[in-house]
Amino acid sequence: MKLRPHLRLPGTLSRNRTALLLLLSQFGIAGGAFVVNILSARAMGPGARGELALFLQVAYAANLVCLLGRPKSFLRFPPKSRSLPDSYADVRRLTSVPLLMSVAVAIVVGIAFERWSVAALILIVSFFVKLSSGITVNMHRAGAIAAGEAKPYLCATVAGQLLLVAGAVGFMVIEVNDPAPWLLLYGISAAIPYLLVEYLVSRRGAAQRRTTDELRQVSRLGISLVPAAVGEAVLGRADRFLLPALSTYAQLGVYAVVLTMTELVVWPATQLAQSRIPSWQAAFNAGELKLKRTFVKVMLISAGISVVFGGGIFFALEPIFGPEYADGRALVAPLIIGALLQCVISFGVSVGVAAGWPHAVTAISLSGLAFALPCLLLTVPACGARGAAWSMVAGYTVGAVAALFTMVLATRRSRLTQMARKSEV
């Protein structure tokens, strides 16, 4: 049955539908990334592909910082109406400062890599477009989760991936091997569909604007989550930052190709966990937070996905990408293990946000980072991509332990709240 935009599904069914649509959008991104991964690898070769991978990782890390923690904090303070127009109206107001920050970051990156030159100006523009599109996508995703209506987000995602693949085919045909045009392609293909969807949603009717004070609490919690975002950015991308510095761009190119596929294992758990933040927040405050059953189910599903993906990647890597990527087979096992550990971390982070514990969220990210960085510095110069992969496993293991502790503590704290209320009665 097709649902009209203003009709809403009750309770758990609505949350599951949102999580499913978010997961489908991630599969759309996965499909596009897989195809573009092949096309860019064929067009650019390991060295140039490694440079593109580095810029994409810098953009990802800068995104997490420029967003100021607002996508996660917005989920803890969603609009009371839970309507998509109201949600997107809040998102527009919350996006202005991150976009201004992205201008400054793009200028710094352009000058750092290309000095003062025409090439620097081209890189600044390309990097800004990529960075601003990432901010737009993340904030729209938060708006869809807060409203419990993810179908427009899914449509924008699929349209964006189709544009990206079409552009990548053109770039491969004309053999574009400069990272700047590829960054521009990534940014434009992502931004246009989401802005179009936002315009169409705004035509449903006038949105109910929240007061500045109401949105200020979103900004305040977001600021307290910035250290966690920085830790997540560095932990999640330290391997790709250090590989070209301590090894070679070719090693990064092989590493990035394998990692792009193994990261798919993380997405189902991440989509479910983030879509549950509003309901977990309500359950935590009511003393009814229960995580065990959901967590076990998701981890079992993720483990099954990892076996299928791991085997497929191992045997298909060389036939699809070419003999120069054959060394990537040794990276499959550690990157799959790391992906499963990231599933645990995503649950812990979402529970920490729902409970309003920014320090716990920060501890999850920074504890893993503190362990992973020394391992990377020791292993990457000698072992290259393989050392980076196993170092990240070590870091993610520490982060996963901190995430499990956060989940257990939140469940017990919620139970104590319920017991205290019963004793008062």
- Low-pLDDT stretches are 1-11
Q: What's the helix-strand series?
A: HHHHHHHHHHHHHH
Largest sheet: none
Nearest-angstrom radius of gyration? 21 Å
Q: How much helix, percentage-wise, in residues?
A: over 70%
**From the structure provided, what is the oligomeric state, counting identical versus distinct chains?**
single chain
Kindly name the structural category: mainly alpha
Q: What is the strand content?
A: under 5%
Determine the N-to-C terminus distance: 44 Å
Describe what this molecule looks like in 3D.
The model is unreliable at 1-11 (pLDDT under 50). The chain has helices at residues 11-66, 70-76, 84-114, 118-147, 151-173, 179-202, 212-246, 249-262, 267-275, 277-286, 292-321, 329-355, 358-383, 385-424. Helix 1 crosses helix 7, helix 1 (11-66) crosses helix 9 (267-275) and helix 10 (277-286) crosses helix 12. It has 14 helices and no strands. With 425 residues, the chain is mostly helical. The protein folds into two domains: 10-210, no CATH class; 224-425, no CATH class.
In a nutshell, what does this entry contain?
Helices cover 85% and strands 0% of the residues.
